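Try it yourself: sequence plus fe (ii) ion, in.
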Amino acid sequence: MNDMPVRIMQFEFDAEELKKNIPDGALNLGLSMTLPYIEPYVIRTMREGLKHTKDKEVAAEVKQFIGQEAQHFRQHRMLNDLLRDCYPALAGLQEIEDQMEADFRRFTKTKSLKFNLAYAEGFEAAICATARTAIETIDINAPMSDLSRLFIWHLTEEIEHRTVSFNVYKHLFGDYFYRVIVGMYGQYHFFKYVFKFAHFIAKHSPPKVKGAADSELKALGSYSLLFLSLGKWLGTLMPWYNPAKLVLPSKHGEFAKIYSELALETRG
Ligand SMILES: [Fe+2]
Ligand SMILES: [Fe+2]
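Structure, out:
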């Protein structure tokens, strides 16, 4: 499955570099905070889906998908650990993390596979829409730290595995209206936490020093980027939406190659 390789990355995050991105990069850091909770939930859901999948091609894709997602949340967890240690008040992020973890444990325990897969696909579709917009804005030749590389590597792989949860849901259930309604609920639930984390980070960090350069993370993604992704997101709600037919950003292939070369190892 060469178009969905599991890249084993090694990033080194620097606390001083990270501090330069607070509070300007709070939205991206808020997103990072959600990932060690939502991505394991999506993995649990897809593992459950895998048990019911008879299509060999779909099953092989799910394994690569799980491999990529497992790497994502581990890398983001390392960043989040560093972030909590940046300023004493940021230790309070743990309380929101606990709420999010409890929500996802409850979904896995009490909701149907159909619900969890529709939620997972809602999340994947929204992230892919945002990733397609974000990737276009990035200057491939600009100098960047591992902090930016983490996000770009992640966005690149989200685009690579864009079809997988859609195909599993379609294969097992195929109910369009249910997918869209639960998917939108999932997007509301997920973004509510992104904003909650971002607000907490901005509120509990020292204000930006006057004259300081814009943060790398702010350049990489901001509230305006979400606005610019609205058209692509609306497209995911249409009955004819099929992520396999999306036109990918021209830079996507270049980033995929760059990160394959940067990886310690690639699997699959
Ligand atoms: Fe991911
Ligand atoms: Fe994903």
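One thing you can check immediately is this: The chain has one domain: 6-267.
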